[in-house]
Amino acid sequence: MSAVLIALYALLSQTDFFQLPASIEGAASLGAVAIVGLLAATSSCLAIVGGLLLSVSAKWAQAYHPATRWQKLRPLLLFNGGRLGGYFLLGGLVGILGHALALSVHATGYLTIIVAVVMLLLGINVLGLVPKQYC
């Protein structure tokens, strides 16, 4: 798998696919962006998709109890294939949209602050630190 990713990177680096816009060129390297993206994708994938995959596997095992190994593996492959295909297509569409609707540095900063405040408030609410009468 690593060899495929390295070959894909080498192929795409021959084009300007990995060229960062001038507004963020000095802010982060592509390596740092890739590492942050991989870490974020892994953590969100484990948190969200793990439960769905376990549920699908359990239902499939109940429905096809005397299944062969291939029959046990089939729903996992279909689930992950569909998930990766969906991420690929939707990620590409969001990337195209994001490229067309690039925010200024100030707008990005304000949006980041607003999202941080909302996440902080949601976290406080989930922890139950504020009585319900004030929420």
Outline of this structure?
This protein is an all-alpha fold and 135 residues long. The chain is built from four helices and no strands. The chain has helices at residues 2-13, 30-63, 69-100, 105-127.
Features:
single chain; 135 residues; mainly alpha; 4 helices
* Backbone shape: flat
Class from secondary-structure proportions: mainly alpha
What Rg is obtained from the alpha carbons, in whole angstroms? Answer: 21 Å
Helix content: over 70%
Sequence of secondary-structure elements: HHHH
Beta-strand percentage range = under 5%
The averaged pLDDT comes out at 78
Describe this structure in words.
This protein is mostly helical. The protein contains 4 helices and no strands. The chain has helices spanning 2-13, 30-63, 69-100, 105-127. Helix 2 (30-63) packs antiparallel against helix 3 (69-100). The longest helix is centred in the middle third of the chain and has 34 residues, at 30-63. The chain starts with a helix and ends in an 8-residue tail after the last helix. The mean pLDDT is 78.
